[in-house]
Structures are given as C-alpha cells and as structure tokens.
Backbone:
C-alpha cells in the first residue's frame, strides 16, 4: 500500500473549512490515504462526515481509514481502521472487519511495533516524531521520539511505517530518510491556505527523501 502522504482529518484544525472540502483538495493534491479522525464530535456526527468524505475517496480510489472506532468503520464499510493503545485488539478488529480490511496500529517503541506486526497490523503509525499540539493531554516535548527511534522501529518490522506527529514539508525529509514509508499529518494539510498545494509539497518532499536513501 502506498502511504507516502497520509491525511488525518480534524475539522477543528481546518481553518473553518468542512472536512469533505479539505479531503477533496487533498485528493486533488495527490494524497494516498485519508483517516477519519474528528475527535471533537459525536459518533453520529463522525459517521455523517465519514459518509460525505467517502463519496470523494471512493471516486478517487483513495483508501478511507477510521480512527479508533471499529463500529464506525463497519457502518461505513470503510477500507480499514487505525487503532491505539486503548482501542480493540488487532485480532478482534480483524474478526469484525474481515481479512481484506487495512488495520493500522499506533506505536512508539520497538517492542510494541514487533508485537503489532505479529498480531496482524498492516502498517504502523509511529510517533509522535516531533512535538505536536494535536493531543492536549500529552506533553509532546517529553514524548516526541525523533527520527532515530522511528528508524529503529522501521528496521525491526517488515510492514510499512508511517511517521506522525508535528510533521511538515520542512521536517518530513529526515523522517523518511530514517526509514519511514510515508508521513501522516493533520494541520500541515488541514490548516494550510491551499491544502492541495500543501499535499503536493509533502509528496515531493517524501519522494526526494526516498531518492536520497538510494544515493
């Protein structure tokens, strides 16, 4: 699966724009995966937003992943789900969503990454790489892992690794050079003046960093 540029949606960080509009612009810019996050709304509202978003992702052939909520992923018949420490185990999500579902797992240390791969994760979201303001209950300056630990995780597993946390077009290069297959962002796209252009810039940065690994 191509996860070069992975958009995580969040309307509260979208400069007043609705999530479907941001997703449409990101698709125009070449986004590879969209994750429906929308932490600040009810499950019913998230489902409704997901239905609107899915119209655009399906037409473009872009996978739609639901953050945390296996029930919403099932209701949408989404392409998959992304799980954290407090969510259902990977094996349970697999039983509920089926063998074809894409299941991602958030990790920040090598041991958890190896365990997640063994449990059947299709890709790993690794971070927070840099400090980020997307989780108000976490001191990111303390918990940011940096590109070096991401690189150690990437070396320990065979599934794709996506760096997440405080990533922009200006600092994505070291993340990919360290071993990430792609980068996941919220504000770098949702908060940009032109989300399509921001997506293209991220994609170009990822591609240049990949090329530098082979030089």
Residues:
């Amino acid at each position: 699966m191509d996860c070069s540029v992975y958009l995580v949606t969040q309307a509260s960080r979208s400069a007043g724009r609705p999530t479907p509009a941001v997703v449409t612009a990101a698709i125009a810019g070449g986004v590879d995966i969209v994750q429906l996050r929308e932490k600040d709304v009810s499950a019913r509202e998230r489902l409704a937003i997901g239905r609107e978003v899915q119209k655009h992702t399906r037409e473009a052939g872009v996978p739609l992943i639901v953050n945390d909520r296996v029930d919403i992923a099932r209701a949408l018949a989404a392409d998959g789900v992304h799980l954290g420490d407090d969510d259902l185990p990977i094996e349970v999500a697999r039983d509920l969503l089926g063998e074809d579902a894409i299941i991602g797992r958030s990790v920040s240390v090598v041991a958890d990454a190896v365990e997640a791969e063994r449990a059947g994760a299709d890709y790993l979201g690794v971070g927070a790489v840099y400090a980020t303001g997307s989780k108000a209950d976490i001191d990111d300056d303390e918990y940011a892992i940096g590109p070096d630990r991401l690189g150690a995780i990437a070396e320990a597993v065979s599934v794709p690794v996506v760096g997440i946390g405080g990533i922009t077009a200006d600092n994505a290069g070291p993340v990919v050079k360290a071993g990430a297959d792609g980068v996941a962002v919220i504000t770098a796209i949702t908060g940009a003046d032109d989300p399509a252009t921001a997506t293209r810039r991220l994609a170009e940065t990822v591609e240049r960093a990949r090329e530098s690994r082979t030089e």
In short: The two ends are 24 Å apart (CA to CA). The CA atoms of residues 57 and 63 lie 7 Å apart.
